[in-house]
Every structure is written in C-alpha cells, then in structure tokens.
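U., I forgot to send this yesterday:
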Amino acid sequence: MKAVYINSVGSVSAQKTFNNEDFLEEIVTYNDTTIRVIEPDYKAYITPAAARRMAKGIKMSTVSAKTAMEEAGVENIDAIIVGTGLGCIGDSEKFVSAIIDNKEQFLTPTRFIQSSHNTVSGQIALGVGCKGYNFTYVHSAISFESSLLDALMQIRNKEATNILVGGVDELVDHHVDTHRLIDHIKHKPVDSSQLLQSNSKGCVMAEGAHFFVLSGQKQSSTYGELVAITTYNTLSKSVLSEKVSQFLGQNGLTPEELDLAIFGNNGDIDFDSYYELLGKGIFKNTPQAYYKHLSGEFDTASGFGFWLAAKILKSQTVPTAVKLNQLEVSRPKTILLYNQYRGENHSLVLLRRC
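Result:
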C-alpha cells in the first residue's frame, strides 16, 4: 500500500504555533471560558486591501496554508481539502443581521458570498492558483478527519501527489452565547493549566486553523507517515476499547506496542470518561498526552492534535506541557490520536515515524 507522508505543517492557534521553528517552548495560559487565537502579522501574508474583505477564518487559514506550502517547498498542489464545523460563521451572522436590520432591502451580496462553508478552500485556491480538486467537509467534530481520509485515499489511489489538507473554525459571539445557553461551555472561567481538574460541565471554546501538505513522496521536510484513519458517529463505552484494539490490530499493532496515545480531553466532566476508560484500561502502560488545555475546544480542534503528533514525531520529544501521565517515551515511532465530542463523532488517527 502506497505510503502517505506529512511533508509540512502550518498552525494558527491559541498558542504561538505559527512559527514552525518553535515547538511549544513558551506556553500561553488562559483563565476564561473562551479563548481566541494569537494572530500572526497578516500583512506578511495577505495584502491589507484583501485582508479587509476577509473573514477571520479565511485569514487564519491563508497564513496556515501558506506556511505549510512554503515548508513543503511546493508552489502548486493537486488538490485542496478543508474540514470545518461552522465555516465563516461570522459573515453568516452579519448577513442575517443585515437582513433583519434592513428589512430585507438594499442588501449587498458580499457577506452572503463569503459566508459559505467552502469560502476558505476557494480563497486558498485563488491565492495559489490551484484549479484542481477542491472540496470542503462539514462533518461536525470529524470534519478534519474526513478531509484527511479523502486525501489519504486519493494519494493511495495515485489520483494526486501533493494535497493541501486543513481544518478551520472561528469563534463568534452568537455561537458562544448559544452554546453557553445549552451548557456546552463552562459557566465559570477556568485556568487552562488546570482544565482537567475543573470538575465541571462544558468545555472552553476556541478557534484555530491547521493545514498540512500530504504527499506520496517523502522529502527532507517530512514529519511522519499517516497510516490509517477511522471514524464512528456513535460508539458506546462498552465497545470502545475493543474498537480501538481492533483498529490497531488492523495496522499490525497491539495496545502495548503503541509509543504514545494523544487524547482530546476538554475538561467536560460528563464526557472525559471516554478518555479515562482507555487511559486506565488498554493504555494504562502507555505514555499519554492531551492538548485541548492549549488549543481549546472547537469542531476541528483535532487539527491541533494532528499538528502536535507530527511535531513530536519529527522532534522526537514530547513537551512537558502536554503529558497526561508520568510514563516516558524516548523515541516515539507510533502515535494514536483519539478524539470525540460529547460522546459522538469519535475518530482514530494513526501516525508513524518514517
């Protein structure tokens, strides 16, 4: 089976990740119920005139995508695949508000055009001159994984060589207010370094953009190999360990042979038990890590986890800030990412050093 390599990464997040030379050397902590990204200097990537017309999600994605393409050393790509839970929801909100305020009259189409979910992939394609396959997945908390799976299949079927894959979501007030109302966001501020000790319902909601160049060709910038992906819409706790073991077995591994398990704990007392079940069960003797205390929670937050795993494989170090237990791993070769959101949309992603 043809190998699929992660040749570059690009990240705009709540941490200082947009510079690929650093790897969580300086951790930014928060004490809030929502956190926003640390914005890079957009002028270095986008002309001011163009930036004024762009939604925040588009600007974050443009920086992240350009960073990934520059590191991979590619000017042209065969396809662009983006995952997003909400798309450019900020412009959607503004367009609907304008309809109400103007009583459905004298509306300009700009906000409507920029509010569609595939605006991000379209803008990136225009910027880099890509006329190839362009697709956006809107699959809630597995939107990013759906994009990865599409790219994985295309490269293995030799339909493409270099594919830009990413996940992006932005934070807007109306969305936050809605989720706070239904108890999906914590009611009281939480110290991000103590997220798992918050003992409360809900998550700390955030935003971010993470892009990667996947390729069928290995090169000097390669981080690792994307081995396999699987997703489940629903998965009960009673069969979770069995499904994870089955997934590893299909890829020639046992739970004991895994070097690192990265979990998507978000501090929600009602649903972090999924991770605890694995952490105290089949992975009790496996080094474990987590990341949503750094990135926050959003539909494509698993993109930050994928970025983290790729950086760990390349640097061969696990930052202290992400360690979930005290077990050490000196030279990680295989990493499993497991994520779910409120008991649904489970994903398993396996990466390997190459």
